[in-house]
Write a structure and sequence with these properties.
7 helices; binds iron/sulfur cluster; 6-stranded mixed β-sheet; single chain; alpha/beta; Rossmann fold
Length: 261
């Protein structure tokens, strides 16, 4: 497994600090400053990063997962080295049936108590009443609005009172993720973001899944390299970017929903 040798440095906040910094942000920034003094090596093993994260943040950190292979690899590591680290997911109301079944499998295999967050009821009812159930196909703006209601707003609630969150983001997944660090400052959400697989390749992820017999979605065998909401995901073709199957009708290359900015 090839690893960069330099030590991780913490990305600087992308924008000037707001005039009134909330207590949570101030506390998270203090944690970040402490981390900067003793950075975790960029080539640290997944389990080391997970343990390190748990020791520094304890109950104030959670893993976010959509049950893609990366998230499942991290769940498997959490179960072994930091089983108290909480795991959450967002149920947009438009997930594949296979994803719900995988949630059941993960709960049974790892004993994980999944924290599932749902969109705000009034916002969903208004969206569907006024724009219909497929408004996201009409324009990028309408798609982003649906993602904001179904994903970003519940994410904000899931991250409340946390000092850090863990993700399965990898640099090679897309151009927008190519500068992800192992540990970085998430300015949009005002807390530390830990991406323990940032430097992993897709091959390494799949090797780990085979080695540890980690459960995955049957959609993977049907060509879905990245699984999101059912109406917004299709299988990818050979040579395509792993996230090319997300919102495939859109011309732009920034295949993000607002969760990872
Ligand atoms: S992925 Fe599609 S259905 Fe899911 S929240 Fe975004 S636009 Fe809506």
């Amino acid at each position: 497994m090839k690893r960069a040798k330099e030590e991780a440095t913490i990305s600087a906040p992308r924008s000037a600090p707001p005039r009134r910094v909330s207590a949570r942000r101030a506390s998270a920034r203090a944690a970040l400053a402490a981390i900067e003094r003793v950075p975790i090596p960029e080539d640290a093993a997944l389990e080391t990063i997970v343990e390190w994260t748990w020791k520094r943040f304890g109950p104030r950190v959670k893993l976010a997962t959509g049950f893609n292979p990366e998230g499942l690899v991290v769940i498997d590591a959490i179960a072994r080295v930091a089983p108290q680290l909480r795991v959450f997911s967002i149920d947009t109301g438009r997930l594949h049936e296979e994803t719900y079944k995988l949630m059941v499998t993960v709960r049974e295999r790892y004993g994980t108590e999944l924290e599932v967050y749902f969109p705000e009821r009034n916002a969903i009812e208004k969206l569907v009443r006024e724009r219909g159930p497929y408004s996201f196909r009409k324009s990028v703006a309408e798609r982003m609005e649906c993602c904001a209601i179904r994903k970003v707003e519940p994410l904000g609630r899931a991250l409340e009172n946390l000092g850090a969150w863990v993700t399965g983001v990898r640099r090679e997944q897309s151009a927008t993720r190519s500068r992800a660090r192992i540990v970085e400052w998430d300015d949009a959400n005002g807390l530390v973001k830990v991406n323990p697989l940032a430097h992993w390749s897709q091959r390494e992820v799949m090797e780990r899944i085979r080695e540890r017999d980690i459960p995955t979605s049957p959609l993977l065998q049907r060509g879905y390299q990245s699984v999101g909401c059912a109406p917004c995901t299709r299988p990818t073709r050979r040579g395509e970017d792993p996230r090319a199957g997300r919102w495939w009708w859109e011309k732009c290359t920034a295949k993000e929903c607002g969760l990872h900015r």
